[in-house]
């Protein structure tokens, strides 16, 4: 089912920089009435407020602090679009001594954080007559890159949960979108050593808006993502997106 951004109120986690900032800008460009910029430090969203005025509403939200998520959901009662963009990366291979520490850190934000946001905001979307919930999952949710073993594992888990949310939220009129970018020019991409092959974050933002309008479940926004997505497409449509009985 199509979801048009025009005239809607949205919330974007990790909105102060990188992909999140580009998503806020794209939503406003495409006619969103207002966007809650959900960030750990609301002051970090000041440049967005200076650019767009009261169409941007900073709100505190930390994926690892459930009380901030509950408070944000209580404040943003008018949202019909939630984009869970925030996430963390702490590079570790499966053989590194710090792999356990890295995985625990990434699971808390990337997986438990998704659950916290979904459980807080899906009831809000339902109460508002439906809407859309977007999860940033990455191509590494499909293909493990060994130097980022723990991060890939956390994103694979978040992708699995996103599939579950798609089925669970369908009866509430909530569309779910799973976004799978490749290397993107963000601080995280730079820190991971991917700057030379990274593409602009605006590609992700525009792809999200287009995929929502088309009623799609998967979106692969950049060059690497499209290569992986093209190979994955038949499985995605025949298995992931198909209605299949349990057992």
From TrEMBL:
Which is one GO molecular function term here? 3-oxoacyl-[acyl-carrier-protein] reductase (NADPH) activity
- Return the EC number: 1.1.1.100
Q: Could you tell me which SUPFAM superfamilies the record lists for this protein? A: NAD(P)-binding Rossmann-fold domains
Matches recorded under InterPro entries: NAD(P)-bd_dom_sf, Sc_DH/Rdtase_CS, SDR_fam
Short name of any one Pfam family annotated for the protein? adh_short
- Keywords for the protein's UniProt record, in alphabetical order: NADP, Oxidoreductase
Protein name from the UniProt record: 3-oxoacyl-[acyl-carrier-protein] reductase FabG
Recorded source organism is: Tautonia plasticadhaerens
The beginning of the lineage is:
Bacteria, Pseudomonadati, Planctomycetota, Planctomycetia, Isosphaerales
Q: Which gene encodes it?
A: fabG_11
